Amino acid sequence: MYRIKSIKFGILSPDEIRKMSVTNIITSDVYDNDGAPVDGGVMDKRLGAIEPREVCPICGNTRDECPGHFGHIELAKPVIHAGFSKHILVYLKSTCRVCGRIKLPENERQQYLKLLKDLEDLNLKYLVKRLHEFIRKKASAQQTCPHCGAPQYKIKLDKPHTFYEEREEGLVKLTPAEVRSRLEKIPDDDVRLLGGDPKEARPEWMVLTVLPVPPRAVRPSILLETGIRSEDDLTHKLVDIIRVNNRLREHVETGAPNALIEDEWELLQYHVTTYFDNEAPGIPQAKHRTGKTLKGIAQRLKGKEGRFRGNLRGKRVDFSARTVISPDPNLSINEVGVPEAVAKILTVPEKVTPWNVEELRKLVLNGPDKWPGANYVIRPDGRKISLKFVDRKAVAESLAPGFIVERHLLDGDIVLFNRQPSLHRISVMAHVVRVLPYKTFRLNLLVCPPYNADFDGDEMNLHVPQSEEARAEARILMLVEKHILTPRYGGPIIGGLQDYISGAFLLTNKSTLLTKGEVIDLLSVAGYRGPLPEPAILKPAQYWTGKQVVSLFLPRDFNYKRNAKIASASALRCIDEDCPHDSIVIIKKGLLLEGVLDKATIGREEPENIIHWLIKEYGEDVARKFMDDVYKIFIRFSEMYGFTMSYYHLMIPPEARERIRNIIEEKKREVDRLIEEFKAGRLIPKPGKTVEETLEDEIIDLLSKRLLDEVADVITPYFTLANPVIVMARTGSRGNPINLTQMAAILGQQTVRGKRLTRGYLNRSLPHFKPGDLGPEARGFVARGFVNGLSPVEMFFHAAGGREGLIDTAVRTSQSGYMQRRLINALQDVRVDVDGTVKTTTGEIIQFKYGEDGVDPMKSDHGKAVNVDRVVQKVVGWRL
Amino acid sequence: MSEKKDINILEHVLVPKHEILSPEEAVEVLRKLGVSPKNLPWISVDDPAAKAIGAKPGDIIRIIRKSPTAGVSVAYRYVVVDVSRKEASVE
Question: d(Cα A839, Cα A847) in Å, to the nearest integer?
């Protein structure tokens, strides 16, 4: 096998361009009157076959085989290749304008040549680069030529392609011809000293005398419906170049006035420059007749939609689907609901064996339009038969081992599911197919967090692995249950959220008693088959607790103890197991003995919750089963309970409102006092702050944090766990106590960039206030909550403050996206080797032990390799 | 201008322990890691710590430092003249 050892880039010499050219392109005409390409035009047939069944006159191939051939244009006068103008400048500056030799004395030149050779032999790349830079600097500083004594002038580059010389008489323009003749005079060794390679890139080749014309296949013309041919941008540009080139040649041959020649020459230079790069700074962009800017060669390669990022690194794929997602709590977290319409297009190739031939015959008979069916049959000789247009009965009949049937997607197939932006590996996971009616992909709500998905119109992509290896890898490595624990931190990323948590809390609450019917209802949702436990209450009637229901699904030897989320509120915290608030969760031998389940024990992104230990101690399939079954019960109970909240749940009694009003008045008076002190010049500035800043800081502190805290203290007694709003806030399912204060009582001070609202009108935020008013109301203080409603001015201030958050999100996503791209590019080839070292593909060591401790974060307990507490807990039970 | 004080940077709290490996140790380390010296991270002879312990090109330095994750971590460096050659050595 041949391996590429190295790649060398160079510049095409005029000779090389002519040698690889099949024809000289001489005419700006493209097609003749019959619409056939003109010989010697830019669409010359010799530039390669592109039409169907067209035979290439050069290589004799049709368009599938013909590689395409270059042509060339002989330029009447040389033009600068703008892509090299910086390099040309270096050569012009460092060499003599008369004799073309490097502006260094002969002895120095010899010395540097030897040094350069030594450094190159030692392969000291960095020092070689430094030497080149040093020589360039030294040579360009020389005022007279050390070889011929000619005086030297400063050279200036006017981007992108014009060179000037600063002579005594002023700025003189150097024509490309002059530039080229100077570059030609530079000896090979001097080119080497300046960092060039005279073999692969002689400096004069940077000034074009011959222009290569790319094959037709590179710039195909499109046939519009109207029958009119539309040419590629590059073709347009080449025609422009030829037209101007021919006119220029004519002028030169007929001896036209110099000014005329120069104008045409300049125009040719413009066309050539924009042909290469139509976004070159310093010159106007070349436009279509329609005003659309033309695409130069650089534009084809550059940027997000360019050849590299758009086509080579971003290829489109077959066997994929994309549609809107919607929730389905009845699916397993391992599953994805696929619309029938999608299942009929996506196919899986299945080999015919004696064991499945009958099944596959049925699928073949059903054909492409009836699910479950098949779209293609591949015969052992490799012929692919579409089942759309053939006698399916005959094909089904002929089916024998060795055939391959491309059958529809069926329940139980494994597919990859993805949501952009694919920021981490859990943005792509493998799901098991469930073909369902309607037109959306369905997924369990519990897998929303890893994809960061919601159902406000999100779309997701689905890919069908086509080989047995790919399917095996997907099932073993990528299945959702293998990713409940995230490598980001040691803990589960998948877990209860929102209604799951509220439901779990309500179900496991001490006051929840279930009748036999209710218990059966709940258990049937989870598909429980087995005896009911003994009821917790026997008389006057049989009742079960929610804790008993949950216990049925826990492994028999599971021990667990953790403070519930509600214990984070000091009023509900307990010191030991004798807990009246039920805020310590204790599971012993698989029985939930006490404590309510909430965010801390069944929530997502909550390390050390029940799911975490179930996975680590019983395996992810047990944990997944627990989630599939029990979490469904949580929602079912939420439905049974009729969990909801209303306006009245946020009402507070008049006496509380009065107290809040007093607190607000008191704070406002304090602010007024501060302002008076400030106006009287008595306010003492804080260290490092001006008096104005000190005042603003004090006011913000008074009106936001301190005020809200005091108000919160007033209203909390009126909100207990009997209130659904509090249930949500305390259990961690949605919202927090601050939101509650804002709804029920007061929003407080609104800020933009940490400052009170000041901008808008001259010296005031709105024309409702006097100029220079520093009072709370004039600077964005909102004294009401959502329950009472905001005044128009307050609503305006709140919107101004809220807008900041939206802008921050928008800015953050774009910035983190770019950071992500750069990190991935830098790290993509780094891997952890079998011995725990981190190496690049070339075997260079990056880390001697992964993360210095060799711990896989996914298999750790948030970073630590061993969690001693849990080990003890497991062995001795819940009592520590 | 004030006199330059003689400071032993190795005594500074932020400088981890550097030590030159004996040829026998070096061979053992490379055998364990299964790499050639050029695949180790490189350190310039001009590196202040390398100079302070008197390392010469071709030596292998062991660096022992405190680590927030592992307590103590050990790393090795290959002493070279020109660190920039690292890019060139990629075959």
Answer: 7
